[in-house]
Fold these 4 entries.
Entry 1:
Amino acid sequence: MKKTTILFDLDGTLVNTEEGVSKSVRYALERYGLEEPDRATVRRFIGPLLADSFQREYDFSEEKAREADLVFRERYETIGLFECELFPGVEEALKTLKEKGYKISVASSKEEVPCRRILERLGVAQYFDLIGGARLKENIGTKIEVLNDVMKRLDIRDKEEVVLIGDSRYDARGAREAGIDCIGVSYGFEEDFEEMRKAGVKEIFDTLAEVIEYLERSTEDEH
């Protein structure tokens, strides 16, 4: 079935947020007297919920991880948020999808307000029908919760018309749990594409231009 609605992950798919996230993670860890982590460790913080990452990578308790998340935000929400840039080809891809009549939305595990601020700052917010993200006060935080919330707000009637474009196993897993397809991109923060495949990603491409070609080709093949 033709895909009519494209949901985008943010970090690692649309925006390279590594600089701001890595500096803010290091800022938080310094508060706890921990040594500066290597780049590979920091990159694993990009995408999943921060509190989960502090627990996974540093064995923090749930309470300590929540506290570390708040310390991270001290720097990230004032400085780190804007230490980012669009990946190459993103604006052109959004423009093309809009011209082709697709409905476009963000569905990020990052909180919704920062998502909007980043995309406005980078000059591409106008391409999206909805900029959706985590809203922790409403208990919307995991990928599946965000995806279900975004589809509800977009009034999606048929999940077969929806596809998530993401860069990680978390995107693929969330999409599978939400009952929609996921297409992966290779330029983001995932280190193990086999894990993405195990999580259910349909295809993995090197550029968004290739993703669009695939979507258009899949539509043509049906006719």
Entry 2:
Amino acid sequence: MRKSTARVALVGAALLVLGVMGAGAVSAAPGQAPAAAPSASAKPAGGPFDKVLRRMVHATVVVRNADGTVATYQLDRGTIASVGSGTITISEAGGGTATVSTDAATRVRKNGAKSDLSSLAAGDKVSVVSEVQGSTAMAKAIVVPKPLAARLPAPTN
């Protein structure tokens, strides 16, 4: 089955948003110190929803495809509580949980590199994009971000 351009773009955009949120607010080129913190009067660089997106725990997005049909996607962020045969359960901030199905088509990125479902473990911080069909959320992409220390530039003396 061929995926519509809109659906692929949505999943890509969602992964980008989740990746940016997972990377945190620190960014600098290798060998450069992070930029100074903005003044209290400065507007966030990401626009009015920047604070909301950085704190996003769970969202449901409905998208109209090019052919007029709609697709529903679920976005979850948290810590893996358990990995089962064909499912993962995510503990979300505020005490909620989300259980999503996985299959051979589920893409996994761990610590910035392609990976597979067998590399996921309880305790991993995770961002998941799932397609919802009926009452089932099927994970399309799972991202385990690099540890914070690996994302920060090396100290300079």
Entry 3:
Amino acid sequence: MSLIHILSPDRMLCAVEVGSKRAALEKLSQVLSRHITDVDKDDIYQALWEREQLGVTSLGYGIALPHARMPDLTDAIGAFLQLKRGIDFDAPDDQEVDLICALLVPNHEHTDPQEHLKVLSELAKVFSEPEMADKLRAATDGQQLFSLIVRQAE
């Protein structure tokens, strides 16, 4: 599945102010819940938080990719936060995180269990370029963030 089908400019926010990992996951849950019918923001938050407790989702270099499976989803969906200031995200390099891309994927037997790993791999590849991270940090709106990520993924 292509990132163009998972991300959307209206789920990509710039200069977001949060003070903690929990607050960032709450904000992502709020953004995602507005675009998913019949899934509560608290359920999204709980799924993201529980996955985070299994192992950190920070890639290092100020980037994190929190992700979770959701039983009531039919399609993968993502949201992106560019933070005004970095936060502690238990990164392996101890660097604060200021770019966060969350991914939710369906959790049922009709979904390829490897699909979310493919998407996470694609996202990690997009964010692995230091120049790309700098461009994302300089973006001023959701459309610009979306265009940068989609172009990099092509």
Entry 4:
Amino acid sequence: MDFSTWFTFTIMATLIVMSPGPNGVIVLKTLGQYGYRPALAVILGLFCATFAHGLFVLFGLSALLIYIPQAFLTIKILGAIYLCYLGLKSLKQFFNAQKPPISDSISDKTKVSVTNPNDTIARLRSFMKVGLLTQLLNPKVSALYLAVIPSFVDFTAATATVDTLILTLTHASIVGSWFVLLATVSVKLLPYFKDTSVGRWMNGLAGAVMLYFSAMLLTFETKQP
């Protein structure tokens, strides 16, 4: 694979990652409600899941998912249910009369404050799982990989495996870099969202958007061979 091929893929992948989607909603919601470090944990989950999708393509698992209607339908439903769960969870916080407290200091929003380091690690792992599951349970990513990777990799060449891994790592790195940038810039706006009513409406908006993406995922179809 030459540089021009890699560069073309990088530009295309960047535009796809930057387009609005559930990943961005989850990152921003986590950032606004829990702080910067939990948002980074979510982004790490997105990175790992994106790389996993590339490995699925490499070992043919994505092809099985797409070519077997029952498997594709199962993953699609699971993904939609998970997004629906996240959306309903946010809406519950929106409608809850006991509004979630928002810290008075920006420093409290950028760290997990617990006395036990093990609790900190466990909590960050839970946020990482949110990003991991959101990306893994999205069959659109598998379909995208199956549609895109063959256009950039010659699977008859001896370097096919290396080329696939390079493109996968590139895509995952773009995912991580873009959302870290988004979180880093957005964290500067946190002082403007100290008002509890603003935080409550942010939960409501995030919940509605997640339900929308859940419905869109259920309507997603891929062409069968």
